[in-house]
Amino acid sequence: MFEEKGISADVVLSDLRGVLQEDCTYESGRPVASMSTTPHQLGVRVLVEYLEKNAGRLHTFQGSAQIEREVVGMIADLLGLENPHGTTTSGGTESNILAMLSFREYAKRKTDSPEVVVPKNAHSSVDKAAWLLGIKLRKSPVDKEFKALPGGIERAITKDTVGIVATAGTTYLGQIDPIEKIGAIAEAHELPFHVDAAFGAFVIPFLRDLGLGNFTFDFSVSGVTSISADPHKMGLAPIPSGCIVFRNKKHLDTITLKVPYLGGISAKQSTILATRSASSILSTWAIMKHLGRSGYRTLVSQCMKTTRLAVERAHANPELTLPLEPVMNILGLGTTNMPLDHVVDRMEERGWSMAISPFPRTMRVVVMPHVTESVVNEFFNDLDKILT
Ligand SMILES: Cc1ncc(COP(=O)(O)O)c(C=O)c1O
Predict the structure, then answer these.
(1) Which terminus in the chain has less CB density within 10 A, N or C?
(2) Residue of 183, 185, 175, 163 lying closest to 99 (CA atoms)
(3) Ligand 1 atom closest to the CA of 167, numbered from 1
(4) Is-same-fold flag (22-39+292-387; 43-288)?
């Protein structure tokens, strides 16, 4: 109910605290399937200090506009692109919608029945984007390691195909599609190619540096035309913080629209949202500047060490299966005998915040920084008890 008379701030805060007791906190380590984590403290300070700033009115907030350009520039640099065209977004969903909007608009003269080819391991935001944009999806098969099959992508291309989407760091298993091979197909068919690296962008470059896997997934692949990257996942930024980077201005232009009542740099916008938080962009900038590549490398190294512990614990229990040896800090856990739903229900009763992935049907564990070694041990101790 919306009361006529207001109540004191103290009572409001205490009521709120009471209700929020129901929330799971990252500090507890219990959200083991989350791609977000406790934001970096410097980012929180910046977020709170500059909360009023609006990235929908960058002509008013010119300093914020400069910082947004620098965030896009830093992310593009991480992804191997020197002169980027892009924008920050509210996250991976908005970035995928924008990528597919750019496909559709770029091919406006080519077809009235646009189709996008996407391997079936893609995030559900691709389905949402297709639904919103009136695009038909052609889902292509994956191999036994749940990676896109390039041949399947090529076979799914029709005269109405307007673009290809693939993933570097899949939601369910952290798998990386063969971006070079898909890029070559995109180029041969003169199609734009979007790489959804919402999760992987802040992990894969550091795996390479750490000698934990040499995956080519970025703008070094000439067929790649856009990449999405979410600082609010492994970038430690407060929500909302996403980004889409285009190689060519012509693709960004297709999603840029005039805003008739605003002036200066706000007179054209490339995002879905108009009024949107600039403080989370400033916060992302501060964290990226503060941590530098070396800070993220250390973070990825820690998460991968903890992932190896999780893998050992999974292998130690014959009632558990791993459909894929993790490529990055994401695991899918299956069970040999006990039904997955039953295990998940029992784990939830013990306070874990769980998720079941549909493909392959597994319990998802994302080894974010809040999922520490002691959390992993507690988690597998509970699983061991339930599975005996
Ligand atoms: C690969 C991938 N893309 C896109 C998204 C959507 O991101 P968001 O929840 O920030 O919209 C996710 C979320 O888990 C993801 O894993």
Answers:
(1) N
(2) 163
(3) 1
(4) no
Q: How far is the CA of 76 from the centre of ligand 1 (A)?
A: 19
CATH topology of domain 43-288: Aspartate Aminotransferase; domain 2 (3.40.640)
Contact partners, residue 304, CB within 8 Å, separation at least 6: 207, 210, 212, 328, 329, 367
Residues framing ligand 1 (Cβ under 6 A): 35, 91-93, 96, 123, 125, 167, 169, 171, 196, 198-199, 230, 242
- The ligand 1 atom nearest the CA atom of 233: 10
Q: Which atom of ligand 1 is nearest to the CA of 91?
A: 10
Backbone angles phi, psi at 137, to 5 degrees: -95, 135
pLDDT digits (tens, 9 = 90+) for 365-378: 999 999 999 999 99
CA 308 to chain centre: 22
**What's the CATH number for 22-39+292-387?**
3.90.1150.10
- 326-345 mean pLDDT: 97
Q: Where are the domains of the chain?
A: 22-39+292-387, 43-288
